[in-house]
C-alpha cells in the first residue's frame, strides 16, 4: 500500500512539474470561457460534450506519451528491477491521470453550472471515462513503437467508443450503443444535470465493470509482453 502511494505521489509530482496541471488549467479556462459565451439553451449539451470527450482525450493521449517517453529513455530497464510490479505501475498511471481529469472537469462544471449539478453521477462518469481510456492508451502504447504510430492508430480505437455521440446529437440511435461504456458515461453526465433513477446507476455500473476489468487485463498482458520483448530481450 505504501509503495503504491509513493508511486502515485511521484506520478502526480512528475505531471505537475512537466506542466500537465498548468496546461489543463489553461484548457479549463478556455472551456469555461467558451461555455459562458454559448447560448443558454445549448450550455448543458455543450458542457456534457466537453466533459465526455476531455477526460478520455486527457488520459488516452497523455498516458500514451508518458509510456513511450519512458520507453525511449530506457526507464523500464531499471524501474522493474526494483520491487515495483506492473500492477503498481498501471494503477499509479491510471489514478494520477484520473485525478487530473476529475479536478479539471469539476472546476469547469462548478463554474458553469454552480450548484445545479448532482456531483455523485458526475464524478462517477468522469472517473469511469478516464480510467477506461487511460487503460486503452496504455494498451495501444504497449503495442506501437513510436509516438507517430500511436497518433496514427489511436483514432481507429477511439472512434468506436464515440459512437454514442450519434444518439446524443439525435442523428441515429441503436440499442448496441448501450453495450458501450461511453453510453453509460453520457447517461450519468446528462443525469447529473437532470435526474437519475436507480436503474440508471445499475445500468452504468453493470456496463462499466466488465469493460474496466477486460481493459485492465488486456492492458496488463500487453504491457507485460511489451516489457519482455522490447525491454528485457
UniProtKB/TrEMBL annotation:
Keywords: Membrane, Transmembrane, Transmembrane helix
Keyword Nuclease: no
Domain of life: Bacteria
Transmembrane region(s): 21-42, 48-69, 90-113, 119-144, 156-181, 201-220
Pfam families xrefs: FLQE3_permease
Protein name: Fluoroquinolone transport system permease protein
Natural source organism: Gracilibacillus salitolerans
Amino acid at each position: 500500500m505504501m509503495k503504491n502511494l509513493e508511486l502515485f505521489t511521484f506520478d502526480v509530482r512528475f505531471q505537475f512539474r512537466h506542466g500537465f496541471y498548468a496546461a489543463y488549467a489553461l484548457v479549463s479556462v478556455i472551456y469555461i470561457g467558451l461555455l459562458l459565451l454559448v447560448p443558454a439553451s445549448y450550455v448543458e449539451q455543450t458542457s456534457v460534450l466537453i466533459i465526455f470527450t476531455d477526460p478520455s482525450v486527457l488520459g488516452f493521449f497523455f498516458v500514451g506519451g508518458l509510456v513511450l517517453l519512458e520507453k525511449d529513455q530506457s526507464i523500464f530497464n531499471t524501474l522493474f528491477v526494483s520491487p515495483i510490479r506492473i500492477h503498481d505501475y498501471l494503477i499509479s498511471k491510471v489514478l494520477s491521470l484520473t485525478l487530473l481529469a476529475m479536478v479539471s472537469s469539476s472546476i469547469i462544471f462548478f463554474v458553469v453550472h454552480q450548484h445545479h449539478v448532482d456531483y455523485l453521477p458526475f464524478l462517477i462518469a468522469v472517473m469511469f471515462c478516464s480510467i477506461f481510456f487511460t487503460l486503452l492508451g496504455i494498451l495501444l502504447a504497449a503495442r506501437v513503437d513510436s509516438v507517430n504510430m500511436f497518433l496514427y492508430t489511436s483514432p481507429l480505437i477511439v472512434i468506436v467508443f464515440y459512437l454514442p455521440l450519434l444518439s446524443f446529437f439525435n442523428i441515429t440511435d441503436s440499442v448496441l450503443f448501450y453495450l458501450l461504456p461511453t453510453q453509460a458515461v453520457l447517461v450519468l453526465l446528462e443525469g447529473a444535470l437532470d435526474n437519475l433513477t436507480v436503474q440508471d446507476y445499475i445500468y452504468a455500473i453493470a456496463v462499466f465493470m466488465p469493460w474496466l476489468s477486460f481493459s485492465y487485463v488486456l492492458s496488463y498482458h500487453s504491457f507485460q509482453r511489451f516489457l519482455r520483448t522490447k525491454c528485457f530481450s
